[in-house]
């Protein structure tokens, strides 16, 4: 075999093992017995040690030196393998395994602390994670204390920098704050009310998942505390959650995770179990989940359809008519939880986390001071105090699993989604008619062709620009969409 063929055989085996490791994480979040946490930490640490050994195998360097790509896809494969190899050889194997063991254990510690609203119970293990992530970042930067956060961010959004994201967020923040103030000072929007059977919520969420293109022969829907999507290729699983008095929590969490899952399911099957055969970045991934959930799922047209299905499933729901239902779905409200935030305020939640985690990694903020810093920043940004750690600093799982550098990709995903939505409207001019009939398929097909099927073939910003007719991604399409939509809902 040629060097390229040997390298790709190695890559497929490595990707397969990574999928097995991911399945351990899915199991931990869904059906694993609580008493298995310590053993699972050892199992995941062992898997990470195996994967790290493969990723740093000296043969990879030799294969890369001698490999000749047969085509454009092959060049992308080599680019992604080289990038991962060069990152992996900088991180000691014992550090990678220690992080895997620690973050597996920390998930259980976080879940218990969140349930009890006890940041003090989580702080010691979080301090350990921050120390190891700083050590990892220093390894990636060659021992330098500068650029630590960018080194971690690059794992989730290749090519992006904290300075670039800060410039985008600085452009968005004042317009978001002004739009929020206009809405919250206006008339109250209607709300759905009642008790919504949780089995009926799950049944309707399954129907919506299939309408949005999720292939349940290659996936499944389970419940978890924090909804997520896991896997790639022919095994892509999602979770959602049910709340008896809040059906939107379940339905829109499902649509959101279906966006992630459809991206993975939609990648060209020729790329399965290769570096190109997965989402190119978390920002692009989030663009799919957010456009599914918001620009499509919360649109006036789709709400017209969903109102009828809600009445079929639950009877009286406390709002009268599709227009009132649309206003209820898009209601701006005071709240604490990022995943439950409306489109206007969601990015402000992300910006808060972005700034705090940068300070943690830089060493400018101690974990012991994190809760107070969170509470101060939240009150400054949102105008009211946090009511407790469970609705504040403990609400997200990300830091417990070491995902530093991940949070800003949520807001970047919204920016990408805004660009894609503008292009979609141009390319599918009769989209409203399809959505009003409960048929997002034309939009999903356009996203499949423009974004999803390519996997990691292109760099993140290049992929979005190609989908949008060559336009460089920026915040303006998203902000124009938000100001138009919520300016009409809350004329002020």
From TrEMBL:
Any single biological process term in GO: proteolysis
Endpoints of the signal sequence: none
Keyword Transferase assigned: no
InterPro entries: Peptidase_M32_Taq (IPR001333)
Keywords: Carboxypeptidase, Hydrolase, Metal-binding, Metalloprotease, Protease, Zinc
Record-annotated active site: 257 (proton donor/acceptor)
A GO term for molecular function: metal ion binding
Catalyzed reactions per annotation: Release of a C-terminal amino acid with broad specificity, except for -Pro
Lineage of the organism: Bacteria, Pseudomonadati, Pseudomonadota, Alphaproteobacteria, Rhodobacterales
Task of the protein: Broad specificity carboxypetidase that releases amino acids sequentially from the C-terminus, including neutral, aromatic, polar and basic residues.
Keyword Magnesium included in the entry's annotation: no
Name of this chain's protein: Metal-dependent carboxypeptidase
Cofactor(s) this protein requires: Zn(2+)
EC number in record: 3.4.17.19
Sequence positions that bind Zn(2+): 256, 260, 286
Cofactor binding, per record: Binds 1 zinc ion per subunit.
Top EC category: hydrolase
Organism: Roseovarius pacificus
């Amino acid at each position: 075999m040629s060097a390229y063929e040997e390298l790709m055989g190695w890559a497929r085996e490595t990707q397969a093992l990574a999928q097995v490791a991911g399945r351990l994480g899915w199991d931990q979040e869904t059906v694993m017995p609580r008493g298995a946490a310590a053993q699972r930490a050892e199992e995941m640490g062992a898997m990470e040690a195996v994967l790290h050994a493969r990723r740093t195998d000296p043969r990879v360097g030799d294969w890369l030196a001698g490999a000749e790509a047969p085509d454009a896809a092959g060049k992308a494969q080599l680019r992604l393998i080289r990038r991962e190899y060069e990152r992996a050889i900088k991180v000691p194997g014992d550090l990678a395994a220690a992080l895997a063991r620690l973050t597996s254990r920390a998930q259980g510690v976080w879940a218990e602390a969140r349930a009890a609203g006890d940041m003090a119970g989580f702080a010691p293990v979080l301090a350990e994670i921050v120390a190891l992530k700083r050590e990892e970042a220093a390894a990636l930067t060659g021992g330098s204390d500068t650029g630590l956060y960018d080194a971690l961010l690059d794992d989730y959004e290749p090519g992006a920098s904290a300075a670039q994201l800060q410039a985008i967020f600085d452009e968005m923040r004042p317009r978001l704050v002004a739009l929020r103030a206009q809405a919250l000072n206006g008339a109250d929007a209607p709300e759905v009310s009642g008790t919504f059977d949780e089995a009926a919520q799950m049944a309707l969420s399954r129907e919506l998942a299939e309408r949005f293109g999720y292939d349940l022969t290659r996936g499944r829907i389970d419940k978890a505390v924090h909804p997520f999507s896991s896997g790639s290729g022919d095994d892509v699983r999602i979770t959602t959650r049910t709340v008896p008095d809040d059906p939107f929590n379940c339905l829109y969490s499902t649509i959101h995770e279906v966006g992630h899952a459809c991206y993975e399911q939609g990648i060209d099957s020729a790329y399965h179990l290769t570096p190109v055969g997965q989402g190119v970045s978390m920002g692009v991934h989030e663009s799919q989940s957010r456009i599914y959930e918001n620009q499509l799922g919360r649109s006036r047209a789709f709400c017209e359809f969903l109102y009828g299905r809600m009445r079929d499933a639950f009877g009286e729901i406390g709002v009268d008519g599709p227009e009132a239902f649309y206003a209820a779905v898009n209601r701006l409200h005071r709240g604490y939880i990022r995943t439950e935030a409306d489109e206007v305020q969601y990015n402000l939640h992300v910006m808060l986390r972005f700034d705090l985690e940068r300070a943690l990694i830089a060493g400018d903020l101690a974990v012991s001071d994190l809760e107070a810093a969170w509470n101060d920043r939240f009150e400054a940004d949102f105008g009211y105090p946090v009511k407790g750690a469970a609705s504040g600093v403990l609400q997200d799982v990300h830091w417990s699993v070491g995902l530093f550098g991940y949070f800003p990709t949520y807001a970047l995903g919204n920016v990408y989604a805004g660009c894609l939505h503008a292009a979609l409207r141009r390319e599918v001019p009769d989209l409203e008619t399809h959505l009003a009939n409960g048929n997002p398929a034309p939009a999903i097909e356009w996203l499949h062709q423009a974004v999803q099927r390519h996997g990691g073939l292109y760099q993140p910003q290049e992929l979005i620009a190609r989908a949008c007719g060559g336009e460089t991604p920026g915040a303006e399409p998203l902000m124009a969409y938000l100001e138009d939509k919520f300016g009409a809902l809350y004329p002020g």
